[in-house]
Write a structure and sequence with these properties.
Layout lengths: L4 H21 L4 H8 L3 H9 L6 H10 L4 H6 L10
Helix pairs in contact: 2-3
Length: about 80
Amino acid sequence: MVLTQAEADKYLRDFARRLQERRKQLGLNTTQLSERTGLARQTIESLEAGTIEPRLLIVRRLARALETDPVSLGFGAPAFRPEPD
């Protein structure tokens, strides 16, 4: 399924909001998150502004640094966790 431009724009805005909210919940500034992820501070600021699309590996790095899972960060939904046997 291909996203419309409006859907893609909404995804970027929602991702940017979740990223910034989680960073602030942990009391981190963009420089500190940059140090935790190895991403440039400018990249984090661009992601939070919704001006660049996050790649999967970047979402994984951000999620690890923000102590959350990539699905929650990327899509706002809790990750599926199968019941233990």
